Amino acid sequence: MMRMKCRRYLRLYRVIISQFFKIILQSRVDFFMGLFGFFFSQILGIAFLYLVFEQIPSLQGWTLDQLIFIYGFAQIPRGIDHLFTDNIWMVAWRFVVNGEFDRYMLRPMNILFQIISEKLQPDALGELLVGILLVTRSMIKGIVITDALHTVLFFVSILAGALIYTSIKTFFAALAFWLKVSGPFLQVAYETANFAKYPTEIYAKGIRFMITWVIPFAFVAYLPASFFLKAGGSPVVIGMECGIAAVFCCIAYFVFERGTHVYESAGN
Amino acid sequence: MKRRIKAYLPFTINELKRQMAYKGAFYLFILVKMFGAFINYYLWMAIYGSTNQNTLGGLTQGEMVIYIFMAYLTGTIVTVSVSNWVSEDVVQGTVAMNLIKPIDYRMSLISRASGDMIYQFLVPSVFIWIGLEIYRAAVPGLPPFSAEKVLFYLVSTVLSFLIYVLFDFCFGMIAFFTTYIFGLMMVKQALIAFLTGQLIPISFFPEAVQRVFDFLPFSSMVYTPVMIYLGKYTGNKLFFMLLRQAAWVVLLYLFGSLIWRKVTKRLVILGG
Amino acid sequence: MIEVSHVTKDFVMPKKYPGLRGAIKGLFSNEKTVKRAVDDISFQIGQGEIVGYIGSNGAGKSTTIKIMTGILSPSDGTCFVAGIDPNRRRKENAQNIGVVFGQRTQLWWDLPLSESFTILKEIYNVSDQAYREQMEFLNQVLELSAFFDKPVRTLSLGQRMRADLGAALLHNPKVLYLDEPTIGLDLVVKDNIRRAIREINEKYKTTVVLTTHDIGDIEELCSRIIIIDEGKKIYDGSLEALKDTYGTKRTLSLEVKQIQKASGFSPAEILGVREEECITELDFENSLLKITFDGHKLQAPQILSTVMNEIEITDIQLKETELAEIVKEIYRHGTEGE
Q1: Tally of structural domains, chain A
Q2: C240 lies in the same domain as C266
Q3: Is A23 at the interface with chain B, CB within 8 A?
């Protein structure tokens, strides 16, 4: 029963996504421009670091190469989430306030699944590309630990990180069921991720606490990245990342589910 | 002249009103934008903490704090995204309608952008500015408040605004040739933040690169007014910098007219 | 098939104050206003019925439909569709129903229509065989094949409505909800859509609930109508009964040779009925004498002969009150005395 259900969902996902591939392929120029846009703006972030390190040998004990790894590593879970679940933004900005959400309520499938499966965001490949390039660069330079344990945990961490991103996005988008539009809040939450592109020690205590425990982007980027950089680090960090991913997932899904019950369709 | 101003004033006022209407969301967006300034602030504090030198790129730590927030503030005032409006108009097909009216499309956009600029200046910027002045008074080693500098800063910022808007108008013309300028807008935004000095003072770039920048309009958009505010340009240098900004205004204006003429000809032929 | 009992729906909104000072006050105050969109409504609809659900704008039609489809949860009361509470068991209910919202498409805007159907086939878990059969039938009644490969955004309103109707019927639902299915369509397309709805109802005994402002939809499709106003049910019964009860007024329109002669003429007096049971109006411009009378009390020939005794007539027209008029009348007064 369960297996049949899973297979049905997977089959549907494949059908929908293949349709959107067709659309993307039809508008190749748009696709490359979007990809290039994201790629380019990330690359400028790296250029910034280069300019700064012309002036200083290291930043609170971190070398340029290490910072570049952290920066690149942060892009991968972000890119994965961006690629697969971009449609959640629409809940925050549009679907609830103008009643388009109705149509998901009318179909005999999981609502969140319907929303996520409706769109792939190819622009995200720009972020992923930057991330993969920078991580590869760091591996060639030999500054990351690549034993079996770290390699496995690398992939675990990326998945957990993407899940944390998705959960935070879902949570803030679900506020739209009460507020009608929650886009600005989601945007604020999403942008806090930028804090975690750099070592969190540089921030004031309040901000550090905020991005570690309240909107835990530090667990998506800086904290796991430093585990892969420094020998002797405890894998507990990755364990905590997974724990946070699980907890946030449950909270976000619960809030979203509650939200669908208080949803007041527009047009009254 | 008076009649002309009268014709464009409604664009300015409407935009002001429109901005007022969205105040809730607006404050959150300021917060989002402020994140960037705060990340920058902490990063630079860490950078100054990692070196024995007193100045980096010609700026002391105190000056850098002022630079970061002043560059943020100037950036928000100056970079009003006219190209967004152009692409909206192109998508909705209202450009052709604008050609019928007895007004200049570009002037109407600039007027509308002025409304935006005034609002951005009044609502968040003034408060940040006051905060910075208090900081300036409290931290020793910073030059004292000077009305003259503030005046020159304001003049320079208005020129910056014109440079940016005229530049962005030219950029917006791309919308006539491709339906999807979202990707390009991202590139533009990232480049603007980088090349205008919002992210890092131009003085951090290698000498050779700085020479190249002298021949581009970008440093005139943010870097110049902020440096004037910091008192880094005086006497002849200050005069030269303002003159250079004015030159860019004229150049970009002429360039924009040229492109606009080409585009409207095309519009007439193809039917917008 | 559908059992709605004592359903009430309240919308709670923060109280708004006027002006800038009001906006600031609104930020801090916690006062709420409650708007009751649906007020203690009950009805039952059997299998195979086509029911017209009508009311003026904001009467609560859409809210009721949304409760029955599982989009909204009722504040009070219960609702069962084919034995399932749509709000608690949304997915099971969704499998049983098909919905068309006239003003909003459920299809994928950028995809060709054919691909939308492929996706819907998966969503509703329709077997290959059932899909083939159903598509054949839908093609026959809705003529989808003419635009089956075009992207949805390029379809005309009429085509899109047919496509939406087809999409709602692909999984052969037990209940079909139609919210303004003919809005904005021209007469020919309206007719096609109505015929399709009838055929589907006849073939599958599909229960149809239909909201509309178009009285033609009701006259041609519905055997029963439910009227609601300000959230309350004010009429539930057959179309004939409604016409019988409220549609008894008839109008006799007479073109006369010399309209001046008709002034001061009162058939009510002559026939010995009260003034309001037989109202006379004069239209000098068109030389028309209009007599509106109660069909239960008087017969047309009676009045005609009274008139012809006095005035020379050149043309005669007899009009029944239209349903639209009746409905308008009911909104205006409610159904006092029922």
Answers
A1: 1
A2: no
A3: no
Token readout for B8 is 């464009």
* Closest CA–CA distance from residue A4 to any residue of chain B (Å): 41
Does residue A258 belong to the interface with chain C, where contact is any CB pair within 8 Å? no
Domain count, chain C: 2
The per-residue pLDDT for range C120-132, each reduced to its tens digit, is 998 998 999 999 9
Structural domain count of chain B: 1
- The range of the structural domain enclosing residue A9 comes to 2-262
**Residue C309's CATH number:** 3.30.70.100
**Residue range B176-191, pLDDT digits in tens:** 887 667 778 888 888 8
Residue where a domain stops, chosen among C244, C273, C297: C244
C329 belongs to a structural domain = no
Q: What does the CA dihedral C25, C26, C29, C30 come to, rounded to 10 degrees?
A: 170
Statement to judge: residues C233 and C127 lie in one domain: yes
Residue C177 near residue C286, CB atoms below 8 Å: no
Please report the residues numbered 179 through 218 in chain B whose beta carbons come closer than 8 angstroms to any beta carbon of chain A: 179-187, 189-191, 193-194, 199-200, 204-206
Tell me the nearest-neighbour CA distance from B57 into chain A, angstroms.
8
Distance between CA atoms of residues C259 and C242, nearest Å:
36
* Residue A267 forms part of a structural domain: no
Task: Give the nearest partner residue to A268 out of C62, C101, C115, using CB atoms.
Answer: C62
- Chain B contact set for A55 (CB, 8 A): 47, 51, 53, 56-57, 204
| Partner residues linked to B98 by β-bridges | none
> Could you report the per-residue pLDDT of C141-176, keeping only the tens digit for each?
888 998 999 988 889 988 999 999 999 999 999 999
- Domain contains C262: yes
Q: Is pTM beyond 0.80 here?
A: yes
Residue A268 belongs to a domain: no
Structural domain harbouring C280: 248-320
Instruction: Choose from A35, A46, A59, A211 for mutation: most chain B CBs within 10 A.
Output: A59
Interface test with A, best of B50, B56, B185 (most A CBs within 10 A): B50
Paired with C294 in beta bridges are C249
The ipTM assigned to this model is: 0.83
Long-range pairs, A111-115, Cβ under 8 A, ≥24 = A111/A256, A111/A260, A112/A170, A112/A253, A112/A256, A113/A9, A113/A13, A115/A87, A115/A88, A115/A90, A115/A91
